[in-house]
Amino acid sequence: METTWKYSATDCFAEPGLCLEAQCCPCITYGKMIALEDDPNLDSYNCCNCNCITFTLLLHFYLAPFLTLAQRGQIRKRYHIKGDGCSDCMCACCWGSCVMVQEVREIRARNDAIRDAAGPNAGGYQLQPQGMTYGQSQREQVPGQENGTMHANQYVDQIDVDRNVETTGGPATVGKQMV
Known about the structure:
By secondary structure, the protein is mainly α. It is about 55% helix and about 0% strand.
């Protein structure tokens, strides 16, 4: 089922900060737009990234609208938005920064809708109030282990013991001499 854009390209002044960024530093807005698709919270986002640099280089040759055009098509395809290549081309070439603002806002809105529909417990690691706990270990105390520390050769020998316990199902003896 095809939908329409949630935001109009002419509504780019609704977020003045983003609009100013798109007018003055479109490469940063483009990089942010690409990063939002993979990282909705922009946790690992850096404003100077490969997409930003590519946009800047192509901007000097008047080819940057092609990146915006391609990205617009991908957004339409991903979110099943009505439109065609001709309208995408017209928007990318004539309203470059406004279109990027529209696309950033669209990606944010769609990601928020997906997250809200999935609910708070929809996958991912959920931090428990008591913190991370570990189950009871089946490892035996290794001779020579002081205060919970092991030397490298003792650790390797302990791994051999654990593997033997897992494969045979019973207690194992260490075949190597531990120092």
